[in-house]
Design goal:
Elements lengths: L31 H13 L16 H16 L5 H40 L1
Helix pairs in contact: 2-3
The structure holds zinc ion (ZN).
């Protein structure tokens, strides 16, 4: 393990680099510029960007089904990252919920109208 003693008094627990007593970030032979680049890349590597996507028209559950089949196909032929597909699946569930809620509110409106008409007629 790395020989660096941290500000807290405990030793750094990162694995050492080959032919060094220090880890990458505590190795004095590595420039601050290089370390800074590595730090920012570390954060960025977790972000998955989908390039060249077209605007997706999803006006019904059937559209969403077709879209999700496309995503599944993309995952199977490695053109879509599995982690990206998890995000897409999560957002798709939100879309399904919106469809369900709007369907319920349309039905409720119809029922309320029918009840009102009934009350006026009696
Ligand atoms: Zn270290």
């Amino acid at each position: 393990m790395c020989n660096e003693v941290l500000k807290t008094g405990s030793k750094c627990r990162a694995p050492v680099m080959r032919n060094s007593k220090f880890c990458f970030f505590h190795n004095k032979q590595i420039s601050e510029k290089h370390k800074k680049e590595a730090r920012s890349l570390g954060g960025k590597s977790k972000i998955i960007r989908i390039k060249n996507y077209k605007k997706i028209e999803i006006k019904s559950i059937s559209d969403l089904k077709d879209f999700l089949i496309d995503v599944l196909t993309g995952v199977m032929n490695n053109s879509i990252d599995v982690r990206a597909s998890s995000g897409i699946a999560y957002l798709s569930n939100t879309i399904i919920r919106i469809f369900e809620l709007s369907d319920i509110s349309i039905r409720l409106e119809k029922i309320e109208k029918a009840l009102n008409n009934n009350n006026l007629n009696n």
